[in-house]
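Self-study notes.
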Amino acid sequence: MTIEARIRELGNRHRMLDQTIQQEMTHPSADPLHVRELKQQKLRLKEQITSLEARTH
């Protein structure tokens, strides 16, 4: 898999997590620990994307 393809894949996962987080936060019974975990996953994906983008420049 090329770096560009990996960046696209991670970007898609990042967007999906963002949507999931938004949906979770609309529920009054949202579990704050679950939301926090999702946000941490999203941050790790963003860090991976940034690292890979730095390699392509």
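Second protein, same conventions, sequence then structure:
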Amino acid sequence: MSQPIIIRKEDLIQIRFPKDKVLQSDLEIKIRDRELEKALSLGNLEHGKVKLTFLDLSCNIYQIETTIWALTDESICLKGDLLLPKRAVLSII
């Protein structure tokens, strides 16, 4: 994987996300979802930040550092009413 482009979470509104899942295997998706749950707990209990690496529609790799406020079946909810589709997320650090 090449180095991600580091952006501010506020820049998410300018990004177009892929319509399809970026992770293909069920195991990778389960691991990502488990890591998101851990990151949610970290954010709610300790206000800790995580790094989310994701793809845009053109397959550019981006990374933001943020606190996860909530999760839905389809999205990651961030401060400022920002949403990041789960389907676009490659990894959580």
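Instructor comment on the second fold: Residues 26-46 form the longest helix (21 residues).
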